[in-house]
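[audit] Reproducing an earlier prediction to check determinism. Same input, same settings, fresh worker. If the C-alpha cells differ from the archived copy the diff job will pick it up downstream; this log only records the rerun itself.
[audit] input (401 residues):
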Amino acid sequence: MAGTELFGAEERREVQDVLETGMLFRYNHDVQRKGIWKAREFEEEIKKITGAKYAHAVCNGSAAIATALAASGIGAGDEVIVSPFTFIASIEAVLFVGAIPVFAEIDETLCLSAEGIEKAITKNTKAVCLVHMCGGMADMDPIMRVINDYNLILVEDAGQAFSASYKGTATGLFGTAGSYSFDFFKIATAGEGGIVVTNDEQVYRLIDTYSDHGHSHVGAKRGMEPHPILGFNYRISELHAAVGLAQSRKVPQIRETNRRHKKQLMEILSAIDGITFARTADPDGDSATFLNILLPDKESAKRTVEQFNETGVTGFDYWYTNMYHFINQWDHLKNLQTASKLAVEVLAPRQDYQNIYLPKAQDIVGRLISFSVRCTWSGDDVTMLGDQIAACVKSSVAETV
C-alpha cells in the first residue's frame, strides 16, 4: 500500500536539493534557496494527478482537513455531519474549528450514505465532512443530490483515498474543499504531510492564508504583509515536501500495480462462501490500497481474525475492536461531553456522544476485515495470501454456523 515500499534514489535526490541550499522553510529567502521550491513542486504534482485547480501543502492530513473546514466557512456552533468510521482527526478537526459533529450512518461503501446524511440533517446543519475510506470512494451522485437539495457545504477528507476518483472526478473535488494525507501509511508519504485542494480561487486564498498564521503572502517582507484573517501554523517544511514530491510521482505506477493485485485476490476469494466485498462506488476509480472483505456476521469476522492470528496471516485490520478508526474506540469523545462547562452547555444539548445509535455502522464495521494491498507483492505472494484468507474464512464460518 505505502509509497515507502518504493522508497529510493528519487526521494534522496529531492531531499538533497533542499539540504544543499539549507533552506528548509517554504516561504521567501529567494536568493538563498537558488530556485529550489519543493512545496510548490509538490503542489503542482498533486494538481496534475487530481485535476484540481488549486492545491496547498500543509504539515499533515489532520491540518489539511482542519484547514479545508475553516476555509469553507465552518465555525462556531455549526453542525457538521460526520462518519463514525474514520480516523479521529476528521472529528477533531470539526471540534477544533468550533463546530459540532453529528454522526450519521454509513453503507457498504464504508462511507457516509445519502440516506444516512439526510436522516441526520437538522435546522442547524451547515455542512457534511465526508470521509472516503479504505482507498475507495463514497457514492457521490446520491450524496450530491442531498447536498444540493439542502444547500449544504461539502468538505471531503480523502486522506485514505488519494488518487481515487468517482466517474472521472478525483475524491476531494466534489465539495468546497478536500484534503489528502501523506503520512507514513498512505499510498504516498511525505513522512508527515497533507494537501488541501479546491477549484475555488477565493477558498484557495483562505487556505493559503489560514494555514500560515493569517499571512496573505502579498509583498516581499514576511510578517509585514496584510493579515486578513486569523490562522494557525500548519506549514509544511521543504524537506517533507521534497519526499512527498518524489513519492507522488510514483502514485500512478503504485495504483496500477495495486489494482492488478486486488483484482487477483478478489478472483480467488469470490468463489468462497461467506465472503462478500465492500462496495466500490466506481471500480474504475479505485486506488486499490485496501481489499475490504465482509463476513456474514460479527461472530464469523471475529473467529476469522482469530484464525488469521493462529495461522500467522498478517497485514489485515479488524476495525471493530482492534483499530482506532471506529467510534467504539473513541472514549475521549464520549468523555468530552462532561469535560468542561463549554462542552456541557454547547455540545450536550445538540449531540449525545455517550449514546449514539448507529446500527448499520455497527453491523458493517463488525463484519469488515481489510487487507493492505502491497505494490511489491509478486503474483505468487498474492495467490498465497488469497489461499490463506480462503482457508481461514472457510474454517471460521463453518465453526460459527
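[audit] rerun output stored. Observation attached for the diff report: The first helix runs from residue 9 to 21.
[audit] end
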